[in-house]
């Protein structure tokens, strides 16, 4: 019998933002930042994919280089309570996700 495919990539993602829930004024920015890396046998596995979902719906997908990333989640929010999932995947589909709750208020 055959075995499944395995990878030995060391995938790491750190949320540098310092919060998971925030209230902002409509029209304000809401930056979040991450540091990520993926290596196999001491070598970088290359760029990865960042996906932002809201309510299970993909809002954006982009290719990102390893290292520091900053994105503005306000671009994917509407007035009210927003639950956003930011996911990073490496070339081997190893994935890490962080969930944010952003409440946008009209002032």
Q: What would your notes on this structure say?
A:
The termini are far apart. The relative contact order is 0.31. β8 (80-89) and β9 form a beta hairpin. The mean pLDDT is 93. The protein is an all-beta fold and 107 residues long. The protein has strands spanning 10-15, 21-25, 31-40, 43-44, 48-54, 57-64, 67-72, 80-89, 95-105. It contains no helices and nine strands. Strands 2-9-8-5-6 form a five-stranded mixed sheet, with no helix packed on it. Strands 1, 3, 4 and 7 form a four-stranded antiparallel sheet that branches.
What is the number of helices? Answer: 0
User: Which class of secondary structure composition applies to the elements?
Assistant: mainly beta
List low-confidence stretches. Answer: none
Task: State the helicity in percent bands.
Answer: under 10%
Number of DSSP-assigned strands: 9
Query: What amount of the residues lies in strands?
Result: over 45%
Q: Which overall shape is indicated by the principal axes computed on the Cα atoms?
A: elongated
Distance between the termini: 64 Å
Radius of gyration: 16 Å
The pLDDT mean sits at 93
Could you state the order of secondary-structure elements as H and E?
EEEEEEEEE
Which strand order spans the largest sheet, edge to edge or round the barrel? Answer: 2-9-8-5-6
Biggest beta-sheet profile: 5 strands, mixed
List the topology elements.
Layout (H helix, E strand, L loop, with lengths): L9 E6 L5 E5 L5 E10 L2 E2 L3 E7 L2 E8 L2 E6 L7 E10 L5 E11 L2
Parallel strand pairs: 2-9
Antiparallel strand pairs: 1-3, 3-4, 3-7, 5-6, 5-8, 8-9
